[in-house]
Amino acid sequence: MSEKDESDQHRRVLVDQVKSNQRASAPFAKTWRSYCDSHGDGFYDPARHSTQFLEDFLKYAAEKRGGSKDDESSSSCRSRSPRSRRNGRHRTRHGRRHDRGRTRRKGRLRRRSDSRSRSGIPTRKTAIKGAERAVAAFTKELEELKGISDDSEPVEHSEQPNQDLQLSRWRAEVEAERAAQVSEAERKLQEEKAARLKEAEEKLDQAIAERLQEAEEKLRAEVHSRLDDAQRHAEAKVKMFMEDVCPKIESSWAEQMKGLALKARDARAAVLHLAQEAG
């Protein structure tokens, strides 16, 4: 196995170690994000960093873990003094309200920064700082190259344009890398904003659909209730009408039957009269 293959294998082992430690420990992941913001241009993917960067971070994380354990053991031995407890009990209402407001603001800022870091998107400030750091490194290299060229033997006049061309090319590359980092950060921010806006629209549509369904069910129940009331009212009216009309109809039929009986009696009398005259 060549030296290059061994170096690549060692780098893959370091990348896997950082990833597994991030999944296993939330403090380790938080330390990794903070270290990348400070020294890694805000890129949280371990595969985007060099072997030296990963080794330095693991050393830094081990030292920080050891220091945090010592701090926790020493802080657990300390206790609050009676005076501090007494001062805490006698805090004014205004002070408690002020502390609560400050705690809420800190919580919102912490949640915002945590959501930004969980999404894997470097902030605009971090990306700009990384680009500025890269520009400073290239500038330092250029100054060293200039110093070496000034201290060395004088070169021919024909080589000066090539050096100027190389310097301008390096500057252009640095500016292009900086612009690419800034544009990448802005693109990721826009994508995250669009995703959150789409999620908010979906939640709004769902809430509107639920409200419409509730309103429809309420309106349907109200319509059924009104129909039942109207049907009962109509039945009561029909019943009252029948109670009022039936006696009138019966009395009319009785009068008609009485009239028919009188006519039948008159007809029988006339028939008898005719029969007597004929006899």
TrEMBL record:
It comes from the Eukaryota. Residues 180-218 form a coiled coil. Residues 80-111 have a biased composition (Basic residues). The keyword Coiled coil applies. Keywords: Coiled coil. Residues 1-31, 63-131, 147-166 are annotated as: Disordered. Signal peptide: none annotated. Residues 1-14, 63-72, 147-159 have a biased composition (Basic and acidic residues). The keyword Coiled coil applies. This is FF domain-containing protein.
